[in-house]
TrEMBL record:
Signal peptide: none annotated. InterPro entries: Cro/C1-type_HTH, Lambda_DNA-bd_dom_sf. One of its GO terms (molecular function) is DNA binding. SUPFAM superfamilies: lambda repressor-like DNA-binding domains. Residues 1-48 are annotated as: Disordered. Residues 38-71 form the HTH cro/C1-type domain. It comes from the Bacteria. Pfam families: HTH_31. Residues 1-15 have a biased composition (Low complexity). This is Helix-turn-helix transcriptional regulator.
């Protein structure tokens, strides 16, 4: 009795190798982005971007980029 190797999936059958482009707009009721949630959290606690950045060991410009959704 011979052993038959398992079948392989055809090329391209797996997940995409490059990012899928973002959808135009967000569906109604979509959760806020991480940046929006971070901004709300920071403002609720009365922290400036500079103070949050210092507490995390990052540059304030990085916090701005994250909150704006650019990172």
């Amino acid at each position: 009795m011979s052993s038959v190797p398992p079948a392989r999936a055809p090329r391209g059958a797996g997940p995409p190798s490059r990012p899928v482009p973002p959808a135009e707009g967000k569906p109604a009721g979509a959760p806020p982005s991480f940046g929006t949630a971070l901004t709300r959290w920071r403002e609720h606690r009365g922290m400036s971007k500079k103070k949050l950045a210092a507490a995390m060991g990052y540059d304030p410009s990085y916090v701005s980029h994250v909150e704006a959704g650019r990172h």
